[in-house]
Amino acid sequence: MKYFVKKIVTLIITLLLVSILAFLAFQIIPGDVVHSILGTEATPEREEALREELGLDKPPIERYLNWGKNVLRGDFGVSYRYSKNMNEMMPVKELIGDKLPVTLWLALLSVGITVLIAIPLGVLWAGTKNKFLDGVLNVLTQTSMAIPAFFLGILVTYLFGIALKMFSPGAYVSYKTNFGGFIHYLIFPAIAIAIPKIGMTARFLRNSTLTELTSDYVRTARSKGASEKRILFKHVLRNAMLPVITFLGMIIAEVVAGSIVVEQVFALPGIGRLLISAISTRDFPVVEILILYITFVVIIVYFVVDVLYRVLDPRIREK
Amino acid sequence: MISIDNLTISFSGKKAVDGISLQIEPGEIMGLVGESGSGKSVTALTLMGLLASEGVMETGTIDFNGIRLLEAGVKPDQKLLRSFRGDQMSMIFQEPMTSLNPTMKVGPQIDEQLILHAKGEFKSSEERKKRVLETLEGVGLRDVEKVYDSYPHQLSGGMRQRAMIAMAVILHPALIIADEPTTALDVTIQNQIVKLLKEIRDRENNSMIFITHDLNLARRICTKLAVMKDGKIVEIGPTEDIFTKPQTDYAKKLIAAVPGRRNALSAKAQSKAESDKLSGDGSEAGELSNAGNEAGENDKKSPILTVKDLNVFYKERSNNIFGKTEHKCVVKNANFEIYPGETLGLVGESGCGKTSLCKAILGINNDITGSVKVATVRPQMVFQDPYSSLNPSKTVGWLLEEPLRAEDLLEKSIKTTKASRREMAIDMLRRVGLDEYYYDRMPHQLSGGQRQRVSIGQALITRPSLILADEPVSALDVTIQDQVLDLLEGLQEEYGLAYLFISHDINVIYRVSDRIMVMKKGEILEIGDRDQLFNDPKHPYTKELLAES
Amino acid sequence: MKVFNLSASKGKKVNIYLIIGAVMTSLVFLIAIIGIFWTPYSTTAMSARERFAAPSWSHLFGTDNFGRDIFSRVMKAVGTSALISVLVVAISAAVGIVLGAITGYFGGIVDSVVMRVIDAINGFPSILLALVIISIFGKGRQNVVLALGIAFTPSFVRIVRGEFIRLRDADYIVRARLMGVTKPRILFVHILPNIFSTFWVSVTIGLNNAILAESGLSYLGIGVQAPDATLGSMLSDAQGYMSSSPWYVLAPGLTIVWIVLGMAMLSEGIGKFKK
């Protein structure tokens, strides 16, 4: 219990710090937001009005506190760039809410593919005595890690989209209109994200399994007459998975935070693309919330990893 | 009966075991003794069919009650071996913590033996559990239900080794191989485990192979001994015969090197006895009075180290901002002195506060109350592990010169030059029994004994008059141990050094000490002259410690 | 089991990873260095007649949509990417050594504070962090180096810190303290040389990650700006012509794979060498 309270306090402090840092960072950015929204032709009166509307006339500390109060109430403010219609500005909440499912489903699919393939592959690899298979897997995984995400995306597009015609590149289907088509389209970017992660995870699992296989308790199990298969699955796997879990956590955090490059290659309207456009157009309210979202995701994922670690490793549980 | 015939094992062409033959009868405890690398463990692992894949069995056969288990040139029948392992023959390893699966409860790990070899005999998992609990009781564990449901790290070292033994004996194997089963344990626990192994043998009449580097221990448990060197058995016979009338030179050397009261007097004791003779009172009482004399002399000299009402605390450092730092008292109310030229032996089990005491004396830990007065500049320390006490990225010469450079920097006066430092380093190399050749070597090119010599040289080069030696020979083989102890004694005489000599090994302590201090759980239980303490221990714990060694 | 260590010293085995990795990597550096002084064609000269020429002896990698020689552009781009990556790793490794040594050896409050910050930065995927930093300081070559340098520092701090924690209580360091060796000397003369084998592996991994991140940024159009060719921006331009002129995409793409694979082999080779 004490552990959970501690973790939650840490979470809150970190979010607070990150929000202040992000807020400060955008204070020192050169250039006036109002200028860039209205252009250079606008009258001073019009600029003044907008400044007041956005609360930019107040000192930074007051603005931060106001903003913080609103966020706590669930009001994330409005975007400087996007508008709902001619008269209404776009609330950040709706903007992000719209894009979030795309990124989350993409993350779920790619992590799912990674885990499903990488873990059996890593165990098989560690268990094999076949030198040729070992060499092939080594080269394959090494190569998969050397391909940059966007190049992989282009290759996947070409292979599955243009050569095999399994989907039409660029023709994103919204989850609102056709959920089946949406998932179908997402599978391909998910594959592009998963390939290098499969390589990394399988290598990692293989190495940690091989390390475990040389440990004393494995020798004990052999001295009991246990078969190699039993040793691998009953004794080694659980211990070998411990470091892999931390590693998987890093991957999940990375994917959930938005696969910027892959979203760009496949023209997916997700968090990553939103972040790029918001940054390049200085859409500060959107950026600030997105940074908080990413921080939040990262911390939560690490927290889950921590809990899982405790469940699997009795030695840590007691500390 | 187990019979090994003309067994040769090689690792990439290098022979680790070289044509050995052994027969082990039921009820016999065969000791395999010898220094590290002599092929003891390789022999045992081969017998179990657990030889690493890099090892090649070049010649020989192994038969187990008439069944051929292994034969050179014949592919081993893994299925047959597996059915023997655990069931007919089982093994107990050195390090009980790492030898048990850390993420599996102890009970199920023992239960696995039953699942693997005797599943048909039991109707249900409850019945198997009953059997496991009985076995745990049989190896002297109490509260067995709780032990069954514990993870290895929740048990003490002794309990873990008992659980390992339970695992090894649950199926009443015909052969039990124990590979240094007590080396990682404290002396008093060691004695209990040895007793337990003997009891089991008496009860079940199994054969045992007992591998150890500790000859005193081998003498206490084994019925027969096979002395190994460089993969060969150089001498084999009943234990007492080997100890009382060793035939080969190597066995003689090995037995002579064993530190212990029963054996030849140490160099120091001898020289003392001689000087006693010269002064005309060479009798047994002379030795005692000699110790008394020395103590009398010490009264006149001023001590080089005075420890008064010392309490040492240990802070549990936690990296968490919310974590409280815990303050534990690890040394309680210590009072003692060390005089120039004498050796104070400090004996106690692991975790008794020996190392904390050292750190307090050296000023590494300042979290103390009471006072430590050191009448010399920068006392130095010699550590147990010759592999971790020399910086692996430097040459021996650099290492020997570094204390001189540090001293110059510290005192902001340049007393030495590059040439003079080199000269001093080479001089020191000779003094510790090495020579100029080693000046440009890296630590990893040296053997354990050579490293320990360099380590001693490094401690002495700035000529401190107090050295703290923390188990300086525990990681070394017996014959090397002997040489290093000789060296330490010789240097003591040469420089008039004072030692605080820490060891868990009563026999080593006996050999080197003038006075002995016994410590347990942070408290000093007893301090006294060596012979007085050995002949008439006051504290019950000291008695227990001395009882079996 | 000491006996099993015997097997590790089995003869002198040829370290195939080290050789392949070294050959692949030195080829890259060779091309990059030549590219600074000489390229077969001008990297900017356009030619309407020679648009989308397939690879041939006159144009090894073919030409692009403006008729520019792709091989020449790749040569230049490799140089740019290599320079940026080396600078990024140099900055982050240098900061990493100093911060890692201090936090690892001394611990305490400084350690707690620095590690909190490092953890916070480390949580962010490095490309995201670089994005945010670039959005603050603006685009351009120096800012890419700065952004990636900051983004890559945490991993170096962690590695160096871990090694210093491992070694700070080693017997030979305790002895150095007893000799009265000064603290900076302990940190940088006694401890530092012992972490180099681990450190070099992370340097090669860092170089790889820097190459991938830099090309990612220029693919997104926020890295090094035109008219300088970078591997990422070339891919971004080529993306639309995948089915008609595949060489246009494959040339920069496979070049990145080549560089990264060579370096990965090299780091695996160094890792094996260490043992």
Question: What would your notes on this structure say?
Answer:
The complex is a heterotrimer of chains A (319), B (549) and C (275). Chain A has helices spanning 2-27, 33-38, 44-54, 60-73, 92-127, 131-146, 149-163, 179-213, 216-223, 228-256, 260-265, 271-280, 284-312, 314-317; strands spanning 78-83, 89-91. Chain A is an all-alpha fold and 319 residues long. In chain A, helix 12 (271-280) runs antiparallel to helix 13. The mean pLDDT of chain A is 85. Chain B is α/β, with parallel strands linked by helices and 549 residues long. Chain B contains 21 helices and 19 strands. In chain B, the strands form four sheets. Chain B has a six-stranded mixed beta sheet, with helices on both faces. In chain B, strands 15-16-17-13-18-19 form a six-stranded mixed beta sheet, sandwiched between helices. In chain B, strands 2-1-4-5 form a four-stranded antiparallel beta sheet, with helices on one face. The longest helix of chain B has 18 residues, at 187-204. Chain B is globular and about 80 Å long. The two termini of chain B are 32 Å apart. Helix content of chain C is 72%, strand content 0%. Chain C has helices at residues 2-5, 16-37, 70-106, 108-123, 126-137, 141-168, 171-179, 183-191, 196-219, 231-238, 246-274. In chain C, helix 2 crosses helix 3, helix 2 (16-37) packs across helix 11 (246-274) and helix 5 crosses helix 6 (141-168). Chain C starts with a helix and ends with a helix. Mean pLDDT of chain C is 84; it is low at 1-12. Classes of the chains: A mainly alpha (319), B alpha/beta (549), C mainly alpha (275). The A-C interface holds A 14, 17-18, 22, 25-26, 28-30, 142-143, 145-151, 154-155, 157-158, 162, 214, 219, 253-254, 257-258, 260-261, 264-265, 275-276, 279-280, 282, 287, 291, 294-295, 298-299, 302 and C 1, 4, 120, 123-125, 127-128, 131-132, 135-136, 138, 208, 212, 215-216, 219-220, 222, 232, 235-236, 239, 242-243, 246, 249, 253, 256-257, 260-261, 264-265, 268.
pLDDT < 50 stretches of chain A: none
Counted beta strands of chain B: 19
List the strand order in the largest sheet of chain B.
6-7-8-3-9-10
How is the quaternary structure best described? heterotrimer
Strand order of the largest sheet of chain A: 1-2
Distance between the termini of chain B: 32 Å
Beta content of chain A comes to: under 5%
Mean pLDDT of chain B: 85
Give the amount of beta strand of chain B, in percent.
15-25%
Structural class of chain B: alpha/beta
Report the average pLDDT across residues of chain A. Answer: 85
Number of helices of chain B: 21
Count of runs of 4 or more consecutive helical residues of chain A = 14
Order of helices and strands of chain A: HHHHEEHHHHHHHHHH
Identify low-pLDDT runs of chain B. 262-270, 272-298
Amount of helix of chain B: 40-55%
End-to-end gap of chain A? 13 Å
Overall number of strands of chain A: 2
| Estimated radius of gyration of chain A | 24 Å
* Major sheet attributes of chain B: 6 strands, mixed
What sort of overall outline of chain B do the alpha carbons produce when their principal axes are compared?
globular
